[in-house]
């Protein structure tokens, strides 16, 4: 089930580079997408699936996330 509670990416066990330009999960998502995503866009990273739920003026305001089952 998709969660929408705000979290820190590190809480999900995703290894982050020590040198990075973001501090928030929203910043992580912008980095992963490589551009400002659209509402409904989905990306997988580090064993997690992230979906953009809401944008405000180009900022990721809300996102959903769920663990991707290993095959």
Spell out the key features of this protein.
13% helix, three-stranded antiparallel beta sheet, alpha+beta, 71 residues
Written overview of the protein:
The longest helix is centred in the middle third of the chain and has 9 residues. The protein has 71 residues and is of the alpha+beta class. 13% of the residues lie in helices and 31% in strands. It has 1 helix and 3 strands. Strands 1-2-3 form a 3-stranded antiparallel beta sheet, with helices on one face. The chain is globular and about 30 Å long.
Task: Provide mean pLDDT, rounded.
Answer: 89
Overall structural class, as computed from helix and strand content, comes to alpha+beta
First-to-last CA distance? 18 Å
The helicity comes to 10-25%
What is the radius of gyration computed over CA atoms, rounded to a whole number of angstroms?
12 Å
- Residue share in β-strands: 25-35%
The largest sheet has its strands arranged as 1-2-3
Order of helices and strands: HEEE
Total DSSP helices: 1
Question: Uncertain regions: pLDDT < 50 for 5+ in a row?
Answer: none
| Backbone shape | globular
Largest sheet: 3 strands, antiparallel
Q: How many E-type strands?
A: 3
């Amino acid at each position: 089930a998709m969660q929408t509670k705000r979290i820190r990416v590190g809480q999900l066990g995703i290894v982050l580079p020590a040198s990075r330009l973001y501090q928030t999960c929203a910043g992580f998502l912008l980095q992963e997408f490589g551009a400002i995503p659209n509402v409904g866009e989905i990306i997988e990273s580090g064993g997690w699936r992230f979906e953009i739920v809401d944008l405000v003026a180009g900022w990721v305001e809300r996102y959903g996330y769920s663990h991707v089952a290993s095959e």
